[in-house]
C-alpha cells in the first residue's frame, strides 16, 4: 500500500529521502557534563612548496560522559551554525577544495556539459488522468524548475499552468515546491514551498480559475495538504522544533491560521505523524509511524469535523498500512509473524486486528512491498531474489493470477500513478542499468503493454553498448550478497578497471538497479559501476533488513568490504582502482569502511554522511533522533552505547593512513547536520598519517538534497566525478 501523497514519514537518513537533522545542538542528555574551559589551537604542518594548505580547525575540548565513560570531543563547537568562526572554517575548506581541484576545472566543466547535454531540455512527464483532467509536469529549455500543468478532458485541450516554479524561484538561492494537490471540485490548488532547504514548507493556495494566490499562508509544514470533500477544508502536518512531524491541523480556507483546529498530536517522540486520502477519496487517514509500529485513524472526507477513529491501536512490533475499497479497509501487515508482510481486509465498522481476514498470505521467500486496488483487479508489487515483480489477480476469478514479464536479468519495476478504480489498465515504470526509465500502460485483461515514454538520452547513446550483470559475493558468514554491475561491453577481467562501488544499506531501503544517464560519463571512460545490495536494505526480503540494523548493524559494513574483495578477486579491479561512494546513512557506511579497511580503496566520496553516531543519538534535541532508536539503538542503554561506539566513524578515527576522500554536505541540511562531516574532516586532518587528498565541500545555500533546480545539482556531481577521474589518472 502506498502510504500517501502528502506528508509521509520517511526514514531519517535517506539521501533522496531519509536522516537526522536539527538546529543548534544542546547537551542536555543524561550523564553529559559541561564544556571545559580549555581552548587549543593546532599548528599547521610544514608547507610543501606552492602546495595548497588545508585549514586547521581550532581544538576546544569538550567532555561527553555517559555510562561512566568519557569522550573528549575537540570539535563540538562546530555545532554553532551562526558562529562566524564556524562559517569561516567551512568557507576555508571550500576554498581549499577549489585550490586542490583547480587542475580539474576544465574537466568539471566538460563533465557538467556532458551530463546536462544528455538531458532533453524541453521535456514533460507522461500525463495521468484524474477527475476529468490530465496532469503532468514539463520543463522548458534552459529553465531550472518544473512547470506543473493540466488539461481538461483531453491531451489536445488548452494547457492550464498551475504553478510555474521558475517564476516562483526568481530571486531565491534555493527553491523547492511540493504537494500539488487539487481540490475535489478542480478549482483550488494546495502546494508547499521551501526557500531554505530545511524541508519546512509554507502551504499556499491558488484559485486555478482566476490565477489568484489566496491570502492563506501556513508555515512550518511538510508541504502537503489533504482536501476534505467540501472543497474548503484541508488537513496538514506541522513540524516541531526538532523537525519531527508531530501535529495534524484542520484549516478552513479564508479563516486565520490561529483558528486552525488541532486534530491530532503525536506525543510519543519516537513516532512521526502524517495525513493522506484513500484512493477511494472517501476517507482521510491520519497515520503515526515509528520503525517498528504504526497506528492509523480515519475521518469521513464528507464530514471533516468528525472525531478521528482508531483503526488498530499501536503495538510494538505490529506494522501495518491502510487503503480503502468498497466497504473494507485493506491492510498490509506483518501481523502474526508475517516477516515479509501479507494483505488483509476488514470492515470499515470493525477495524481492530481480530476482525482482519487474510487476502494474500505471507510467503517466506517473497516480500510484499505494495498493493494497488482496482475494481476488477488487485496488483501486488513483490520482491523476490532481489528483484521487483508485479503480480496481477482478478477478484472474481482466482485462477487469473500471473506475473508481468520484463525479460531482463537485473532491473527495477514499480507501480506508478493509478488514480482510477474502474480502469483495466495498470500504469507501471520500468528501468534497468542499461534501459532508460520507461512508463508503460498494461492492459490486465489482454496482457498487452504499451510503452508511453522512454527517457530520452540526447546524443549518441546506444544501450547495446553497455552490459549489465548480477553477481553474488560471499560474505564472511556465508551469506550471498547480490551485486549489480554495469560497464561498457568488451570489458576485460584483468583486474585493471577503475570501479565505483555504491551502497546504502539502512532503513530497509532497497537500492534498485536503475538507469542513470549521468553515470555514462564514468562508464564511457572505462569505469565499472557496482551496486552492492548489502544487508540493512530490503532487496532480499524483510529479514535482509533485520540482519543489518541495531546489534547486527556491522553486517552492513562487512558486507560492503566483502563485495569489494570479491570484485578484486574476480578481476574487475584492484585496490589502486577501486572507489567507494555512499550518502547519508550510506555516508556512515563509507566512514566505517574507511576506518576498517582504508587500504582497500583508492578514494571515497561520503555525501551528507551520518558519522557522529553516538553524540547525535544521545542528543534528542537534534531533529529526528528519537525516531531513530529502533534503527540504530538507544545509546541511553549501555549495550547499545557500547556497540554504536565500536563503529561510529568519528569516534574511531585513528592515527593511520586513510584513502583519498571527498566529503560533501549542505549548511542547511535538515537530516544529517553539516557539523557531523565538518567535525569528522577536522579530526581526520588531525589524526591521519598519509598525504592523500582530504577534501570537504559545503554547499552554503542547500540542505540534504544539495542544490535546487534541474541542472545545478550536476555541478556537484561533476566535482565528484572529477575527483574519481583525477585519482584514476583519467584527464579527459
UniProtKB/TrEMBL annotation:
The residues covered by the Peptidase S9 prolyl oligopeptidase catalytic domain are 515-729
Record carries keyword Protease: yes
Instruction: Please tell me whether the keyword Signal is annotated for this protein.
Output: yes
Q: Which InterPro entries match?
A: AB_hydrolase_fold (IPR029058), Pept_S9A_N (IPR023302), Peptidase_S9_cat (IPR001375), Peptidase_S9A (IPR002470), Serine_Peptidase_S9A (IPR051543)
Region annotated Disordered sits at: 27-63
Q: Which residues form the Peptidase S9A N-terminal domain?
A: 55-455
Q: Which UniProt keywords apply?
A: Hydrolase, Protease, Serine protease, Signal
Q: Which residues form the signal peptide?
A: 1-26
Q: Name one GO molecular function term.
A: serine-type endopeptidase activity
Q: Which GO terms describe its biological process?
A: proteolysis
At the top level, the lineage of the source is Bacteria
Q: Which SUPFAM superfamilies match?
A: alpha/beta-Hydrolases (SSF53474), Peptidase/esterase 'gauge' domain (SSF50993)
Compositionally biased residues, Low complexity? 27-51
The task this protein performs is described as: Cleaves peptide bonds on the C-terminal side of prolyl residues within peptides that are up to approximately 30 amino acids long. Has an absolute requirement for an X-Pro bond in the trans configuration immediately preceding the Pro-Y scissible bond.
Q: Which family does it belong to?
A: Belongs to the peptidase S9A family.
Supply the name of the protein.
Proline-specific endopeptidase
What's the source species for this entry? Pontibacter ramchanderi
Amino acid at each position: 500500500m502506498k502510504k500517501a501523497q502528502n506528508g509521509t514519514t520517511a526514514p531519517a537518513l535517506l539521501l533522496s529521502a531519509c536522516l537526522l537533522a536539527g538546529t543548534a545542538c544542546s547537551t542536555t542528555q543524561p550523564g553529559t557534563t559541561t564544556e571545559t574551559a580549555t581552548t587549543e589551537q593546532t599548528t599547521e604542518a610544514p608547507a610543501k612548496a606552492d602546495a595548497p594548505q588545508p585549514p586547521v580547525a581550532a581544538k576546544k575540548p569538550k567532555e561527553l560522559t555517559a555510562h561512566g565513560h568519557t569522550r573528549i570531543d575537540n570539535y563540538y563547537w562546530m555545532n554553532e551554525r551562526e558562529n562566524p568562526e564556524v562559517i569561516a572554517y567551512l568557507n576555508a575548506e571550500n576554498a581549499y577544495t577549489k585550490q586542490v581541484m583547480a587542475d580539474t576545472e576544465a574537466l568539471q566543466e566538460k563533465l557538467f556539459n556532458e551530463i546536462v547535454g544528455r538531458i532533453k531540455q524541453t521535456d514533460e512527464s507522461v500525463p495521468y488522468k484524474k477527475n476529468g483532467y490530465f496532469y503532468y509536469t514539463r520543463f522548458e529549455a534552459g529553465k531550472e524548475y518544473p512547470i506543473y500543468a493540466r488539461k481538461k478532458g483531453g491531451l489536445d485541450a488548452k494547457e492550464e499552468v498551475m504553478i510555474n516554479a521558475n517564476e516562483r524561484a526568481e530571486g531565491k538561492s534555493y527553491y523547492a515546491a511540493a504537494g500539488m494537490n487539487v481540490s475535489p471540485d478542480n478549482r483550488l490548488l494546495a502546494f508547499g514551498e521551501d526557500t531554505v532547504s530545511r524541508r519546512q514548507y509554507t502551504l499556499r493556495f491558488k484559485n486555478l480559475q482566476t490565477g489568484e494566490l489566496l491570502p492563506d499562508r501556513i508555515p512550518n509544514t511538510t508541504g502537503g495538504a489533504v482536501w476534505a470533500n467540501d472543497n474548503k477544508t484541508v488537513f496538514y502536518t506541522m513540524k516541531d522544533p526538532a523537525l519531527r512531524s508531530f501535529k495534524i491541523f484542520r484549516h478552513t480556507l479564508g479563516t486565520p491560521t490561529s483558528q486552525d483546529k488541532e486534530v491530532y498530536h503525536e506525543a510519543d517522540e519516537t513516532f512521526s505523524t502524517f495525513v493522506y486520502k484513500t484512493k477511494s477519496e472517501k476517507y482521510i487517514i491520519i497515520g503515526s509511524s515509528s520503525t517498528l509500529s504504526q497506528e492509523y485513524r480515519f475521518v469521513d472526507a464528507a464530514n471533516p469535523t468528525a472525531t478521528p477513529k482508531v483503526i488498530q491501536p499501536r503495538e510494538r512490533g505490529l506494522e501495518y498500512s491502510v487503503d480503502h475499497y468498497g466497504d473494507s479497509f485493506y491492510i498490509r501487515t506483518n501481523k502474526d509473524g508475517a516477516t515479509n508482510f501479507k494483505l488483509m481486509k476488514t470492515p470499515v465498522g470493525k477495524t481492530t486486528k481480530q476482525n482482519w481476514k487474510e487476502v494474500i498470505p505471507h510467503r517466506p521467500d517473497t516480500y510484499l512491498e505494495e498493493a494497488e486496488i482496482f475494481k476488477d483487479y488487485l496488483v501486488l508489487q513483490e520482491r523476490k531474489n532481489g528483484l521487483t515483480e508485479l503480480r496481477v489477480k482478478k477478484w472474481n476469478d482466482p485462477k487469473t493470477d500471473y506475473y508481468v514479464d520484463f525479460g531482463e536479468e537485473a532491473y527495477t519495476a514499480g507501480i506508478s500513478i493509478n488514480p482510477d478504480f474502474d480502469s483495466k489498465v495498470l500504469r507501471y515504470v520500468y528501468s534497468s542499468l542499461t534501459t532508460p526509465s520507461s512508463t508503460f500502460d498494461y492492459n490486465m485483461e489482454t496482457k498487452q503493454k504499451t510503452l508511453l515514454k522512454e527517457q530520452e538520452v540526447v546524443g549518441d547513446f546506444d544501450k547495446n553498448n553497455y552490459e549489465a550483470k548480477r553477481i553474488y559475493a560471499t560474505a564472511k558468514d556465508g551469506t550471498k550478497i547480490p551485486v549489480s554491475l554495469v560497464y561498457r561491453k568488451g570489458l576485460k577481467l584483468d583486474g585493471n578497471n577503475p570501479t565505483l562501488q555504491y551502497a546504502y544499506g539502512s532503513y530497509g531501503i532497497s537500492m534498485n538497479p536503475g538507469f542513470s544517464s549521468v553515470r555514462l560519463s564514468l562508464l564511457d571512460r572505462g569505469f565499472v559501476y557496482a551496486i552492492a545490495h548489502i544487508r540493512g536494505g530490503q532487496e532480499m526480503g524483510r529479514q535482509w533488513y533485520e540482519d543489518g540494523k541495531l546489534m547486527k548493524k556491522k553486517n552492513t559494513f562487512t558486507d560492503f568490504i566483502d563485495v569489494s574483495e570479491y570484485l578484486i578477486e574476480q578481476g574487475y579491479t584492484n585496490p589502486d582502482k577501486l572507489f567507494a561512494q555512499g550518502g547519508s546513512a550510506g555516508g556512515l557506511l563509507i566512514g566505517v569502511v574507511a576506518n576498517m579497511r582504508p587500504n582497500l580503496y583508492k578514494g571515497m566520496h561520503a555525501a551528507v554522511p551520518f558519522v557522529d553516531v553516538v553524540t547525535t543519538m544521545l542528543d534528542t534535541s537534534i531533529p529526528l533522533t528519537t525516531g531513530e532508536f529502533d534503527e540504530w539503538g538507544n545509546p541511553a542503554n549501555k549495550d547499545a552505547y557500547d556497540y554504536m561506539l565500536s563503529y561510529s566513524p568519528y569516534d574511531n578515527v585513528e592515527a593511520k593512513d586513510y584513502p583519498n576522500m571527498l566529503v560533501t554536505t549542505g549548511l542547511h541540511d535538515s537530516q544529517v547536520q553539516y557539523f557531523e562531516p565538518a567535525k569528522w574532516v577536522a579530526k581526520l586532518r588531525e589524526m591521519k598519517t598519509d598525504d592523500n587528498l582530504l577534501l570537504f565541500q559545503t554547499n552554503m545555500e542547500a540542505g540534504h538534497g544539495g542544490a535546487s533546480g534541474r541542472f545545478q545539482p550536476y555541478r556537484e556531481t561533476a566535482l565528484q566525478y572529477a575527483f574519481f577521474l583525477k585519482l584514476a589518472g583519467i584527464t579527459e
